[in-house]
Amino acid sequence: MKHSFFFLVFLVFGVHAQTINSPNIPQWGMTMNFDQFNDTVSVSASGPWDFSSVQPASTNTMAMLPISASSNASNYPDATHVLQSANGEFFFTYDSVGLKTYGKVTSSTTASYANPLTMVPFPLDASTTHVDSIASTLVWNGLTANVTDKAEVQGIASGTVTVPDGVSYQNAVVLSTKRTTVTGPSPFGTYLTVVEHSKSFWLPNYPLPVVEVLHVFSNGSLVFKRSLFLQEFTSFGNEEVLGS
Q: What are the structural domain ranges in the chain?
């Protein structure tokens, strides 16, 4: 009975053993290819998770670069990195406390936060619980408005995940996240509330989730959904390494 008890204790604590720390991003940045599926996939509460049957609709590229790579760097003096994608530029800092956002520049919106929003904490694991919020302003289509931004994170589990290109990772941590952005009031006194619900799979030394399943709601109505899968190889400047 004694041996069974200690085995059970080891099993319980082993479930949450995987820990993700702040990634070590090369000084020249990193370019990531990802597959996108224009719908959401089911994510169970425990692994393993197998997405090898998913047929992506497109393959795209994004780059996490040093802040100096952005022409908007002077507006984000405390950010260390910029994520450049087809959707715009997104400004971040990675440190031992967490992944922090300072805002974004897109075709319609410019947001620059004096105080960053911590999106996810570091270190993180399957037992992580995190809440952070900020108040700031943004410019939307030339109009300045107040905005509040809130991030809520809850760990789900850790285990093996298999992505559409067939590669399996044994050390993923799965998080359930909710981000709520409230903008307004407008000149008519109305508010825009955008809520993003996602399930994300994090790996050591990856600056972004290897899998993210996203639903976006605008004033309560579903307006967007998609699943994103980072590919096996990640480009570090002119070098390539196998994803861990």
A: 19-231
Taking the C-alpha atoms of 160, 124, 234 and 79 in order, what is their torsion angle to the nearest 10 degrees?
160
Mind listing the pLDDT tens digit for each residue in 46-68? 999 999 999 999 999 999 999 99
Enter the CATH code of domain 19-231: 2.40.360
9-21 pLDDT, tens digit per residue, is 333 444 445 899 9
Distance CA 91, CA 102 (A): 5
What residues in the chain have per-residue pLDDT under 70? 1-17, 233-244
Strands 58-66 and 30-37: antiparallel
Q: DSSP readout, 203-238?
A: -TT-SS-SEEEEEEEETTEEEEEEEEEEEEEEEETT
